[in-house]
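User: Can you write out an input/output pair for a complex, sequences first and structure second?

Assistant: Here is one pair. Inputs:
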Amino acid sequence: MEIKTTNLQKAYRKNYAIQDFTLDLEGEKIIGLLGKNGAGKTTFMRMLAGHFQPTNGQLTINGQTPFNHYDVTKNICLVMESNNFNNKFRVKDILEISAKFYPNWDHEYAERLRQVFRLKEKQKIKTLSKGMYSALGIIVGLSSHAPITIFDEPYIGLDASFRSTFYDLLLESYQKNPRLIILSTHLIDEVSNLFEEVVIMQEGKLLLHDTVDHLASKHLVLSGNKEKIDQLTNGLDILHQSSMLGQKTVVLYDELVEETDGVDVSKSTLQELFVYLTKEEVNTHA
Amino acid sequence: MLEQTKLHLYYYWKTSWTTILTFWGIYIFFIALMFIAAFYGSNGSIMMTGVNIAPGLIFSLFFGIFSFKDTFPYVIELGLDRYSFILSSFISIILYTVAMTSISQIVLHTVDYLINLFSLENFEFSGLEIATTDATSTSSIVLYEGLLYLLFFSFSILLGSVFFRFGLKIGFTVIAIFPIMMIIQPIAHKVLDALKYIAIGHELYTPFAFFVPYGVIAILLYVIVYNASAVGNN
């Protein structure tokens, strides 16, 4: 599977949700799609699934636009945080419908997951709690075995235990059936170990697309005496800094520091790095 | 396309059968109540008159609007394309028409049978034959009923698409156009003249005249839906 966007734009009247968005994704991997609220993640994912057209630019999946192309969209399963299912239905209806629509649907797996998440077959969708609704979305997403499976914050209302179960199931599902999985989340620390690549969006644009390993190797956290840190990092591009009681911590991105004697060197978590990178004053690193 | 059409019809069936069944359940229950009331009031204290098709047409007018928003965004999100949605919608409108006309005829004939069985004179329940001459054949009346269901339901689906795509303001504006048209006399005369061609009792009536509104509805539905977003304009 190859997803390619070139100068993609999506405008709602005069407001751009996505602009000049160019990105290439390919292969079978789990990709984290990160960004602050309003960064354009959901808009991008919905365009990927063919829910609406871009205003400008190109979006192709294996060379074909997803909008109005069933050959493309039948291989995509997008699970959003809400509005996935018609409230008229019961849980079993959703599973039956999904089985018909997704060509690679695994009925036995779906049934197993339904039991794992303790959903009753006959329960009406409109009576499901937020967590149960999310669980149903997760069941559909995982059981679809769609070559492109997209989860847009699918855990709303799920407690920590079930979220952990979801992450385990996601990994298990990916290992059994490798495919392109895009997971958009704000709980980055909980899932960062699942990601092979990370795409960070900011204000509708691509801020960064990199492998998690490369991202980790490209940054450095230096802590120590303020004067020593200032001396070491003089003239370097500092991503984030904080000082307290004569001690200073700086986060460097894409910078080389040869001499680190007398200072502590460590790494940020992906979530911390995301926070630093998406602060307004930081430049584009794509 | 065939695969998509089958999937859409399946989804349509899943969303609609309970609603249609509920409508007929309530309607038949109401007729039964009236029938019993007429039976026990056969001394003349209760007089019932009903026209079979009216509730069905009113139901169709509302059902289509809700049917669109109950199916379109979900089947698009499930991967179907809009062209197949349009084609499947036409098929589902025809299937709906056949189902509604058949049920309506069964209800009509069953009630007629019961009226004769119990010799009720204070309970009248008629079909469209009251708007026709004696020379009109039963098959023509049944065909006309079907044509009306087709017209009302397809128009209602078109309205549903307008509401979904353009929002409530434009939706209600479209609805308001019809009474406004009837206020402007030259337009009202033309509309009334045109209606003669689809009024079964009128000498100008021809079933083929229905193809004009069907064609207009089909074209408008295509124009509205073929590039519509799965996200409604609420």
